[in-house]
Amino acid sequence: QVQLQESGPGLVKPSETLSLTCAVSGYSISSGYYWGWIRQPPGKGLEWIGSIYHSGSTYYNPSLKSRVTISVDTSKNQFSLKLSSVTAADTAVYYCARQPETYYYDSSGYLRSPDYFDYWGQGTLVTVSS
Amino acid sequence: QSVLTQPPSVSAAPGQKVTISCSGSSSNIGNNYVSWYQQLPGTAPKLLIYENNKRPSGIPDRFSGSKSGTSATLGITGLQTGDEADYYCGTWDSSLSAKVFGTGTKVTVL
Lengths: 130, 110
Description:
The complex is a heterodimer of chains A (130) and B (110). Helices cover 0% and strands 55% of the residues of chain A. With 130 residues, chain A is mainly β. In chain A, a hairpin with a 4-residue loop joins strand 5 and strand 6 (58-60). Chain A is globular, with a radius of gyration of 14 Å. In chain B, strand 5 and strand 6 (71-76) form a beta hairpin. The relative contact order of chain B is 0.33. Chain B is globular. Helices cover 0% and strands 45% of the residues of chain B. Chain B has no helices and nine strands. Chain B has strands at residues 9-12, 18-23, 34-39, 46-49, 63-68, 71-76, 85-93, 98-101, 105-109. Chain A binds chain B through residues 36, 38, 45-48, 51, 59-62, 95, 102, 104-106, 113-118, 120-123, and chain B through 2, 31-33, 35, 37, 43-47, 50-51, 56, 88, 90, 92, 94, 96-104.
């Protein structure tokens, strides 16, 4: 059974960098799939942050792209999120999840992309406050 | 601001049916697969439907998905109190090169 577990500080100061790790068990990241991060501010909806392919290629939410870095460590079977220059608006429950790959068509032809989220972590609340 | 629009809430009595719509555009729903997620209070979202109308193992056939043009629909029949949750649609937006979620719909069992 695939399991994902988020970990990291629950409190981050404004202007600092939020760092989270997602440990994966029951499946080897190097075998395939995309691995994604999603967040949910208190009382609000889901927002996709970004996804990384097992080989390291990434997609990021355009609205967060300038502040986000997602990386993968296949030796530890985990992937990580860094979000810089945080503000109170970044306070949210952060989830990690696994995503099968799919393909979409644009003017360049067919491009590989992350599909639905089939396994999710339980989520971790990160509060941005001084 | 989400590019996929859902009704804020729907409700029905136990045993009845509800449908939840998800409206998008040609750059997202119109040309990509749609998935649906159930989020029970205080828990992580759970995959209900993928590739428009497929159910993962363990999801009862009371839940169904469909897509037509730039809209998708989640149906829940034989409504149960345990179905009270928030439901989200999701898809890929080819113009944004990004995953997008719907605004979310709260299902209430009367």
